[in-house]
From TrEMBL:
GO terms of molecular function: nucleic acid binding
GO BP term (any one): DNA integration
PANTHER family per record: INTEGRASE CATALYTIC DOMAIN-CONTAINING PROTEIN, PROTEIN CBG26694
Protein name (Swiss-Prot/TrEMBL): Integrase catalytic domain-containing protein
Domain Integrase catalytic: 1-87
InterPro entries noted in UniProt: Integrase_cat-core, Retrovirus_Pol_polyprotein, RNaseH-like_sf, RNaseH_sf
Organism, scientific name: Rotaria magnacalcarata
SUPFAM superfamilies the UniProt entry points to: Ribonuclease H-like (SSF53098)
UniProt lineage: Eukaryota, Metazoa, Spiralia, Gnathifera, Rotifera
Length: 102
Protein backbone atom coordinates (compact mmCIF):
# COMPACT_ATOMS: atom_id res chain seq x y z
CA UNK A 1 0.00 0.00 0.00
CA UNK A 2 0.89 3.67 0.02
CA UNK A 3 2.27 3.39 3.57
CA UNK A 4 5.26 1.55 2.06
CA UNK A 5 5.48 3.64 -1.11
CA UNK A 6 6.22 7.21 -0.06
CA UNK A 7 9.07 9.71 0.34
CA UNK A 8 9.92 8.52 3.86
CA UNK A 9 10.38 4.91 2.76
CA UNK A 10 12.39 6.04 -0.28
CA UNK A 11 14.69 8.12 1.96
CA UNK A 12 15.06 5.20 4.41
CA UNK A 13 16.04 2.83 1.62
CA UNK A 14 18.70 5.27 0.42
CA UNK A 15 20.00 5.88 3.95
CA UNK A 16 20.18 2.23 4.96
CA UNK A 17 21.12 0.99 1.50
CA UNK A 18 18.48 -1.56 0.64
CA UNK A 19 16.43 -2.11 -2.49
CA UNK A 20 12.72 -1.72 -1.90
CA UNK A 21 10.94 -4.30 -4.03
CA UNK A 22 7.26 -4.87 -4.65
CA UNK A 23 5.31 -8.05 -5.24
CA UNK A 24 1.94 -8.71 -6.75
CA UNK A 25 -0.94 -8.87 -4.30
CA UNK A 26 -2.45 -12.34 -3.81
CA UNK A 27 0.23 -13.93 -6.02
CA UNK A 28 2.61 -15.78 -3.67
CA UNK A 29 4.66 -17.18 -6.56
CA UNK A 30 6.10 -13.70 -7.17
CA UNK A 31 7.39 -13.52 -3.60
CA UNK A 32 9.15 -16.90 -3.39
CA UNK A 33 11.68 -16.09 -0.65
CA UNK A 34 9.07 -14.82 1.82
CA UNK A 35 6.76 -17.73 1.06
CA UNK A 36 9.63 -20.15 1.77
CA UNK A 37 10.32 -18.40 5.08
CA UNK A 38 6.62 -18.53 5.98
CA UNK A 39 6.60 -22.25 5.15
CA UNK A 40 9.30 -22.66 7.80
CA UNK A 41 7.69 -20.55 10.54
CA UNK A 42 3.97 -21.28 10.18
CA UNK A 43 4.08 -25.04 10.98
CA UNK A 44 6.30 -24.44 14.02
CA UNK A 45 4.03 -21.72 15.39
CA UNK A 46 0.94 -23.83 14.65
CA UNK A 47 2.33 -26.66 16.82
CA UNK A 48 2.97 -24.33 19.76
CA UNK A 49 -0.04 -22.06 19.80
CA UNK A 50 -3.24 -22.54 21.73
CA UNK A 51 -5.85 -22.46 18.98
CA UNK A 52 -8.64 -21.48 21.37
CA UNK A 53 -6.81 -18.37 22.58
CA UNK A 54 -5.17 -17.57 19.22
CA UNK A 55 -1.88 -16.77 20.98
CA UNK A 56 0.48 -17.41 18.03
CA UNK A 57 2.20 -14.06 18.58
CA UNK A 58 3.60 -15.28 21.93
CA UNK A 59 5.64 -17.91 20.08
CA UNK A 60 6.90 -15.81 17.18
CA UNK A 61 10.05 -14.54 18.95
CA UNK A 62 11.22 -17.99 20.17
CA UNK A 63 10.63 -19.53 16.72
CA UNK A 64 12.54 -16.72 14.98
CA UNK A 65 15.33 -17.05 17.58
CA UNK A 66 15.61 -20.78 16.88
CA UNK A 67 15.72 -20.10 13.15
CA UNK A 68 18.36 -17.37 13.46
CA UNK A 69 20.64 -19.43 15.71
CA UNK A 70 20.25 -22.74 13.90
CA UNK A 71 22.74 -23.94 11.28
CA UNK A 72 21.34 -23.81 7.75
CA UNK A 73 22.19 -26.62 5.37
CA UNK A 74 22.86 -24.31 2.42
CA UNK A 75 25.46 -22.07 4.09
CA UNK A 76 26.57 -24.35 6.97
CA UNK A 77 26.21 -21.26 9.19
CA UNK A 78 23.40 -19.72 11.19
CA UNK A 79 21.95 -16.37 10.07
CA UNK A 80 23.31 -15.00 13.38
CA UNK A 81 26.86 -16.07 12.46
CA UNK A 82 26.60 -14.55 8.99
CA UNK A 83 25.33 -11.25 10.40
CA UNK A 84 27.61 -10.87 13.43
CA UNK A 85 30.61 -13.02 12.45
CA UNK A 86 30.53 -15.08 15.65
CA UNK A 87 28.63 -17.87 17.32
CA UNK A 88 25.52 -16.75 19.24
CA UNK A 89 25.60 -16.88 23.03
CA UNK A 90 22.77 -19.12 24.11
CA UNK A 91 21.15 -19.46 27.54
CA UNK A 92 22.41 -23.05 27.62
CA UNK A 93 26.05 -21.98 27.16
CA UNK A 94 26.58 -21.05 30.81
CA UNK A 95 28.83 -23.19 32.93
CA UNK A 96 26.80 -25.60 34.99
CA UNK A 97 29.19 -25.18 37.91
CA UNK A 98 28.21 -21.52 38.18
CA UNK A 99 24.63 -22.40 39.15
CA UNK A 100 23.74 -22.98 42.77
CA UNK A 101 20.69 -24.98 43.77
CA UNK A 102 19.21 -24.85 47.25
Amino acid sequence: GTHFHNQLMYAMSKLIGYDHTHSTTYHPQSNRMIEKLNATFVPQIAKLQDKENNNWDEFLSPVVFAYNTGTHSTTQYSPFQLLYGREPRLPTDGKLSSFTFR
